[in-house]
Amino acid sequence: MVHFVGAGPGAADLITVRGQRFLKEADVVIYAGSLVNLELLESVKKGCKVFNSAHMTLEEVTEVMENAEKEGHVTVRLHTGDPSLYGAVREQMDILDEKGIAYDSCPGVSSFCGAAAALNLEYTLPGISQSVIITRTEGRTAVPERECVQAFAAHGATMILFLSAGLLHKLTGQLLSGGYKEDTPAAIVYKATWPEEEVHLCTVATLEAVAKENRISKTALIIVGDAVLHNNYERSKLYHPEFTTGFRKGVKKL
Ligand code: SAH
Fold first, then answer.
1. What burial letters (b/e) apply to 124-150, b meaning 16+ CB within 10 Å?
2. What's the predicted TM-score (pTM) here?
3. How does pLDDT run across 217-227, given as a tens digit for each residue?
4. 162 CB near ligand 1 (under 6 Å)
């Protein structure tokens, strides 16, 4: 059995209770060494074999899983944040399917949730944005043309950019030509929830300069949109005294 487990964004106590239990029980752990907090590995049992996938190919990773399976061992594949986002998990699952090895997934706290926590943000503010666009600018991995940053920028919604902190010159051009304004609020969140977390508020126009000034080019999220400054949003209907829900009767003010 293989458990794909989300390690959370950084802080070791942000793994789920279930993920922590799987880790404690594992005979083999393969962790994404570039971003997983090593503190998490302190809880593995004695004799557990630990592999850093940063030095491995897909074939090597699945070979370790296959060998573990042959011995009746349980493997945890520990991915950063939530495995479903830029986690390269599907390709592993397809190989496990071919080999007839059972697996399941345990969600994790994605870094975009960690970044919201770092800024005390609500991404979906009434009257400002009711959508969160999670995307990236093109790097060595292509982005389908219809999903280019310019196309998404036209919505003016809250946008979160993964894997783009080293490409800010290009990104800023795309954000502006797509429709955000130069003074649209933005934030750079470096290593959200880690002890070395940094939060920098800026605007779309100053993203590149602020990142450069703070020597940030990786392990950061870029957040764009008016939700970052949260001025002039509308209060929620859900908690309005006049609004009736299945749990509470609203009362009209006379
Ligand atoms: N599955 C992960 C994302 C993996 S892609 C998740 O759900 O968070 C790796 C990218 O995620 C990094 O380049 C960076 O953009 C972002 N990232 C991961 N951890 C981060 C953190 N703690 N703070 C800021 N960005 C982070």
1. ebeebbeebbebbbbeeeeeeeeeebe
2. 0.95
3. 999 999 999 99
4. yes
Which atom of ligand 1 sits closest to the CA of residue 191?
23
Predicted confidence band of residue 34 (pLDDT cuts 50, 70, 90): confident
Per residue in 84-95, pLDDT (tens digit) is 999 999 999 999
Contact 122/230 with Cβ under 8 angstroms?
yes
Q: Count CA within 13 A, CB hemisphere, residue 145.
A: 0
**For a pocket test of ligand 1, which of 31, 37, 84, 111 has the largest count of ligand atoms closer than 8 A to its C-beta?**
111
Cα gap 209→1, rounded to integer Å: 47
Measured from the Cα of 194, ligand 1's closest atom is 22
Between CA 243 and CA 252 the distance in angstroms is 8
Residue pair 111/7 in contact (Cβ under 8 Å)? The answer is no
Cα 9–Cα 17–Cα 117 angle in degrees, nearest 5: 35
| Cβ atoms of 65 and 30 closer than 8 Å | yes
Strand partners for 224? 159, 186
The CA–CA distances, whole Å, from 83 to 36, 80, 104, 118, 251 equal 12, 7, 11, 21, 44
Q: How many Å lie between the centroid of ligand 1 and the Cα of residue 249? A: 42
On whether the CB atoms of residues 96 and 2 are closer than 8 A, the answer is yes
> Residue 98 pLDDT > 90, yes or no?
yes
3-state secondary structure of 134: strand
Q: What are the angstrom distances between the C-alpha of 79 and each of 39, 52, 163, 184? A: 14, 11, 15, 33
Amino acid at 9: P
